[in-house]
Amino acid sequence: MVKLSSLTRTLLRYRIVHDKDVNIVSITSDSRTVQPGSLFVALSGYTVDGHNYVLESVEKGAVAVLLERPNPQVRVPQIVVPDSHLASAIVADAFYGHPSDRLRMIGVTGTNGKTTVTHLIERVLADAGKVPGVCGTLGARFAGRAVELNNTTPFPVELHGILNDMALAGCTHGVMEVSSHALERRQNAGVQYKVAVFTNLTQDHLDFHGTMEAYLAAKGKLFSRLGNAYGGHRGDMSYGVLNADDAASTYLAAQTVVECVTYGIENDADVRAKGLHIGPDGLACDVHTWLGDGHLQMSLTGRFNAYNALAAIAVGLIEGIPLEQILESLRGIAGVPGRLERVAGNHPFTVLVDYSHTPDSLENALDTIHEFAKGRVICIVGCGGDRDKGKRPIMARIACEKSDLAVLTSDNPRTEDPEAILDDMEAGVKDANYAYQRILDRALAIESAISVAQPDDVVLIAGKGHETYQIIGRTKHHFDDREVAKQAINKRFNG
Ligand SMILES: CC(=O)N[C@H]1[C@@H](OP(=O)(O)OP(=O)(O)OC[C@H]2O[C@@H](n3ccc(=O)[nH]c3=O)[C@H](O)[C@@H]2O)O[C@H](CO)[C@@H](O)[C@@H]1O[C@H](C)C(=O)N[C@@H](C)C(=O)N[C@H](CCC(=O)O)C(=O)O
Ligand SMILES: Nc1ncnc2c1ncn2[C@@H]1O[C@H](COP(=O)(O)OP(=O)(O)OP(=O)(O)O)[C@@H](O)[C@H]1O
Ligand SMILES: N[C@H](CCC[C@H](N)C(=O)O)C(=O)O
Ligand SMILES: [Mg+2]
């Protein structure tokens, strides 16, 4: 519990309507989670305005409100700020006693690979006796707890709350995915990163950022916000980890004053893989680092996972873990949920569920599959609604070009007309002579692909990975590609 005055002291530009010091027991930006004694933060949303819930929050017991436009209907103290989003980060950070200072924060950004890299880092740190907490697309997990999240990077109040829970649970490290949306919206204001990792930059989210330049600039903010100082002494310094094979890294290195470690396969790098071998059951390569050499063997496969592993190795070395131990940890990782995840069973072909929902990740997933597929490759893919429209025809073309049969279907249509999304996709393939089907219903699309799969074929179900829902309109329906695939396999082989 803290006094409201101790929170407002952290702000410079604000005024209070109905000034009175009160005790704040919790803080939230969602009226649905307000409790007696809460400070409610009204955020101007993208589709919904949190200011509409001020009255409701007070009725539920909020004792103060932080907002941009005061509400004449309520009598509790109202702290009026120019930007409630930024102010909520500053106030939440103070309310929780600056939790990110109590953790070594590792931020991972980039178009693809963030979830995988955070997962690998988690394992490397845990095996070395550290206590990592992780926060990202798969939710937050720490100390045996799992918290579901709406966003890859939570909004400020939720984020600082999670970091506080991690610190209280004894975590030593906070490993988090930092999405470009979050960087642009300053969702992680107040989080001081000790290590900033960049995976890669390819097309996605142009609906939000407009241009690739703006998208890159958003990613750059993770690096520029490492600050102009680089820490007090070795062990407390900040570092960057950059992909030497991605042209964007030159720009990112220029955004920060901290020392950057590079990793790569093609170009010279501080952590470099050589002699890479990709197989159906994993990958292997020699690893040369500025701290010695070793051999990596992993059950995650695909060239892109070699990059993810190199990034995790760089972070492990920065954290002072011996190379041999890092490699041992990576060797022990079975897989990441929804990332080239195999649907188990006795069927004579392979079914993989993968979260490739960008042109680059789809291409990578299909290229990797071609490295080991003995039969045909069948690809089921859709594109999300209310998201970058530009990637739709490109993804359809990649699916058709890189597979023997493509089935175009729905992903999460959200508020868009699913047929119109498929029209956008089909525009990329209509004029060519591709073998593809268009089946709107995702379950039927999966069933259709599985019904024609022959021994040794590989069926890739792309786009939704670990997701256990399909968003149609504003409703989340239960839907799990892995379950649907299993049902289709059962139907085919057991009637
Ligand atoms: C389009 C978009 O970005 N929407 C985000 C936005 O939602 P919104 O404006 O519709 O608003 P809302 O959450 O429904 O309501 C606005 C405010 O009112 C409050 N509210 C709302 C209802 C209520 O009853 N009471 C109440 O207090 C909400 O808590 C919120 O503070 O604000 C919400 C947080 O409050 C986000 O969860 C939500 O992200 C949605 C789920 C989303 O899908 N966002 C995508 C674009 C996104 O951010 N993706 C990135 C990256 C993905 C990647 O890396 O590929 C991510 O980090 O997840
Ligand atoms: N380093 C990489 N480069 C390119 N593609 C990758 C890389 N790592 C993973 N992928 C592909 O991208 C998909 C998503 O991977 P992952 O979930 O790790 O990325 P992400 O950056 O967290 O995605 P999101 O932005 O949706 O959270 C995987 O299923 C795989 O097909
Ligand atoms: N974090 C990404 C996930 C996309 C997953 C895909 N299944 C879709 O719905 O487009 C986003 O919000 O854009
Ligand atoms: Mg992710």
From TrEMBL:
Residues 108-315 form the Mur ligase central domain. The modification N6-carboxylysine is found at K219. Pathway: Cell wall biogenesis; peptidoglycan biosynthesis. It comes from the Bacteria. Residues 338-465 form the Mur ligase C-terminal domain. It catalyses: UDP-N-acetyl-alpha-D-muramoyl-L-alanyl-D-glutamate + meso-2,6-diaminopimelate + ATP = UDP-N-acetyl-alpha-D-muramoyl-L-alanyl-gamma-D-glutamyl-meso-2,6-diaminopimelate + ADP + phosphate + H(+). GO terms for cellular component: cytoplasm. Coiled coil: none annotated. The keyword Metal-binding does not apply. The keyword Ligase applies. UDP-N-acetyl-alpha-D-muramoyl-L-alanyl-D-glutamate binds at S31, N151, T152, T153, S179. A motif (Meso-diaminopimelate recognition motif) lies at residues 411-414. It holds the Pfam family Mur_ligase_C. Its cofactor is Mg(2+). Carboxylation is probably crucial for Mg(2+) binding and, consequently, for the gamma-phosphate positioning of ATP. PANTHER family: MUR LIGASE FAMILY MEMBER, UDP-N-ACETYLMURAMOYL-L-ALANYL-D-GLUTAMATE--2,6-DIAMINOPIMELATE LIGASE MURE HOMOLOG, CHLOROPLASTIC. This is UDP-N-acetylmuramoyl-L-alanyl-D-glutamate--2,6-diaminopimelate ligase. It comes from Alicyclobacillus mengziensis. The gene is murE.
